[in-house]
Amino acid sequence: MKILALISFLIGLTAATGDDLHYVDPLIGSTAGGNVFVGASLPYGLAKPVADVDGQNTGGFSTDGSNVTGFSHMHDSGTGGNPSQGQFPLFPQLCRDNIVDNCRFGKTDRATHYIQDSVVARPGYFAVRLENGIHAEMTASQRTALYRFKFPETHASNGDTLDPVILLDLTDLWSSRQNASISLDADSARIVGNGTFLPSFGAGSYRTFFCADFTGAEVRDNGIWVNNRAGSEPKALYVTRGFNNFYLQAGGYVTFERPDDGVVTVRVGVSYVSSQQACTNAEAEVPAPGKDFARLEQEAVDSWSEKLSPIKITAGGMSDAMISAFWSGIYRTMLSPQNMTGENPVWKSDEPYFDSFYCIWDQFRAQLPLLSLIDPETQTNLIRSLLDTYKNEGWLPDCRMSLCKGWTQGGSNADVVLTDAFVKNLTNIDWELAYKAMVNDAENEPLEWSYEGRGGLQSWKRLNYIPYLDFDYLGFGTNSRSISRTVEYAYNDYGLAVVGKGLGKSENTKYLSRANNWRNLFKADQKSVLENGTDTGFTGFFQPKYLNRTWGFQDPIACSALASWCSLTSNPSETFESSIWEYLFYVPHDMAALIKLLGGPDSFVKRLDYFHTSGLADIGNEPVFLTVYQYHYAGRPALSTARAHNYIPRSFNASTNGIPGNDDSGAMGSFLVWSMMGLFPNAGQNVYLISAPFFEAVEVTHPITNCTATIRNSNFDPTYRKVYIQSALLNGRPYTKNWIGHEFFTQGMTLELMLGEHESDWGTRVEDLPPSLSDNQARDEATVGMHGVGMMGS
Ligand SMILES: *[C@@H]1O[C@H](CO)[C@@H](O)[C@H](O)[C@H]1NC(C)=O
Ligand SMILES: *[C@@H]1O[C@H](CO)[C@@H](O)[C@H](O)[C@H]1NC(C)=O
Ligand SMILES: *[C@@H]1O[C@H](CO)[C@@H](O)[C@H](O)[C@H]1NC(C)=O
Ligand SMILES: *[C@@H]1O[C@H](CO)[C@@H](O)[C@H](O)[C@H]1NC(C)=O
Ligand SMILES: *[C@@H]1O[C@H](CO)[C@@H](O)[C@H](O)[C@H]1NC(C)=O
Ligand SMILES: *[C@@H]1O[C@H](CO)[C@@H](O)[C@H](O)[C@H]1NC(C)=O
Ligand SMILES: *[C@@H]1O[C@H](CO)[C@@H](O)[C@H](O)[C@H]1NC(C)=O
Ligand SMILES: *[C@@H]1O[C@H](CO)[C@@H](O)[C@H](O)[C@H]1NC(C)=O
Ligand SMILES: *[C@@H]1O[C@H](CO)[C@@H](O)[C@H](O)[C@H]1NC(C)=O
């Protein structure tokens, strides 16, 4: 009877919201440091056109009301620090009296305000009107940006109509150009060129190429400009850095006869291989630039719809704003990494090549697990690309952008990405190669561990921790972060043990033992005192430890909002971008042991509460993610739910400032998405922590098995008074564990949650808790996996 009732209930609810793409708002996170890319892109697209501004321009554009300095074709999304890419911007303008020397050339001279409410951003399309009356629209295919610039009809002092002028600047957002070339064709007005630029968070330099074609207007003239002067001869230019690294502003220009409709269309093909390939890309993808705009936009819309199609939600009265925040979060996880297959000049290979892993330290926790679920085929290709990078460059990346090695932030966290895919059974991956790459991280110290592998491995093996002020002559990296590296290396080695065990490797026990190394930096009598002298009342924290096994000291609150921000570049410390308080919770594989060490569940919960309510938790950066849900491990899943509702929508919402920190390639977006879906991954383990979804129901159709998993709040309350799970049914049978494995999705199970206003005893018993390494009983259950669940139901 009960099951029948459930089934009819199900049928009533399966109607989803329909086309969900219109909920995607690319402008979420476009100011206040979200740094998201708001322009046009395909999923994983390489071409990413948008307006570039002189304000918060890390991702190109910002709704901060600053000035537009150009329109460029390649970007990264959500990154921090220096702006990324933005090469070869175009700048449309009308120049006084049709005299080209009257044009505004350099970035500062030409910067022009945009009209705030003219900004239109949707998947595959971006538009903005400048204060000079020029309206710009853009869309993109995989490697080609397509622009339509509409010039107003304006007259010179002698009554002539002003000619549209489009400038191309041999620069990038960061003005990192080392050298660049441009050449213009006098007849067709095609412009090709290339330049060498610096990666925004990595070593070395990279070269990119472009091929620009103009249609819709008669060309009057073209040429080059240098500083504030231009000339129609010569038609080529090479610029480099000279005395004192001097930076010359230079580029090309084209002037047109204004067409009746005022529109000049510009097609810009991009490539990392050659200008010729940039032209070939453009010609193949956009054969008829004057007519292709609508087709490109439609193709982008179709691609995005397909990528979002595995998920359906039943909102149940949840606000449109939060629906928008949800879909936009998913959307942003597929802006980067970028598919650069066929565009890698560094090595030749038939394997896929993806770039803009910016950075894996951010992405491994929630973003890449989300892709494993809703786009497993791409996740497989991302991993194959990481493994091919290992094969050809010798190391798995921890961060990679623009063909360059990016700076490593902590551990070798590609190991976690591999482990996560392994426990979720992703196929078409060479696991022997993956294991080799992971062992390489764990055993061999590279000369430059600032951008690959791990440092301090001699100490890691001899002392079982990374020492404070290590004596490390094997390799070079910033000799800091001994605490955060210790806890991350321990988790990385745990992954190695898991994959090794799965592959039947004998070193498995060695890595399991190293997975305990985090314990070696736990100083049981360490106290934490606030800056005004108040004792937080908690004892036992990680502390730095010297080579001679005596303790050093770092204030547990240092590198939190209650003290000062720590960054690798300005003030490296023993924890990376976060405090000892926050890293204390980073024992994802052995929360049971950590909880015991911190005095048991009650005392752990007090500590986690204090962390989240005192200002110590940095909700704007990725290490905090799992801490929101770690109450599950103390048998208090309701407190995780309460905590999630405390942060959402307060810190994650649909406003232009609705991301609490850099989106980091969609990492922040993925935190929101998993939280709202009511499951949170413990990346690297076959574990999702169960909480109530923020909407009535969510369905996920697994793209490979085609099975549909459903999570439903059976008495959903959109005002969120009733958010606590009272009881649960899995496939119609009582389910008391507060976590579930990936089989939930691959096999398409149904989880029905009964909610109430107060915490219940659901999911609170020891046998309900997620697995921990030191907890034998739980570990056995984890190995048995869903088999155990089936038995429970039968
Ligand atoms: C934008 O340009 C105006 C002048 O048009 C200038 O006053 C302002 O400082 C610029 N804004 C930024 C952020 O550079
Ligand atoms: C351009 O700059 C890069 C990086 O400094 C350098 O390796 C390359 O040789 C330069 N190319 C030319 C043609 O000067
Ligand atoms: C860069 O462009 C210039 C001018 O078109 C050309 O002479 C040069 O060979 C190009 N460099 C590369 C590496 O293609
Ligand atoms: C990546 O690009 C290649 C080459 O264009 C294409 O064959 C492949 O399907 C793309 N993969 C994804 C996941 O978009
Ligand atoms: C992975 O495959 C194994 C062996 O077939 C199976 O027992 C396990 O349930 C699968 N795990 C997932 C997450 O599908
Ligand atoms: C010290 O700072 C904390 C956190 O800001 C505050 O809650 C507490 O009241 C302060 N104590 C004193 C004695 O000022
Ligand atoms: C251990 O090393 C630290 C740092 O060099 C030093 O300050 C401390 O005195 C040493 N302790 C012992 C017991 O040698
Ligand atoms: C949205 O999130 C941002 C960033 O965390 C926050 O500053 C803002 O107050 C939030 N807005 C609302 C309406 O909650
Ligand atoms: C899933 O559906 C796709 C498209 O309909 C089909 O090609 C594929 O074979 C199906 N997979 C399974 C495992 O049924």
Molecular structure report:
The protein has 794 residues and is an alpha+beta fold. It folds into 2 domains: 21-305, Beta-galactosidase, Chain A, domain 5; 351-694 and 764-768, Up-down Bundle (Glycosyl hydrolase family fold), CATH 1.20.1610. Helices cover 27% and strands 20% of the residues. It is built from 21 helices and 32 strands. The strands form 8 sheets. It has a 9-stranded antiparallel sheet. A hairpin with a 2-residue loop joins strand 29 and strand 30. The longest helix has 21 residues, at 482-502. It starts with a helix and ends with a helix. Residues 1-18 and 777-794 have low confidence and may be disordered. The structure holds 2-acetamido-2-deoxy-beta-D-glucopyranose (NAG) (9 copies). Residues 546, 548, 550 line the site of one 2-acetamido-2-deoxy-beta-D-glucopyranose. One 2-acetamido-2-deoxy-beta-D-glucopyranose binds next to helix 8. Keywords: Glycosidase, Hydrolase, Signal. Residues 23-271 form the Glycosyl hydrolase family 92 N-terminal domain. This is Alpha-1,2-mannosidase. It holds the Pfam family Glyco_hydro_92. Its EC number is 3.2.1.-.
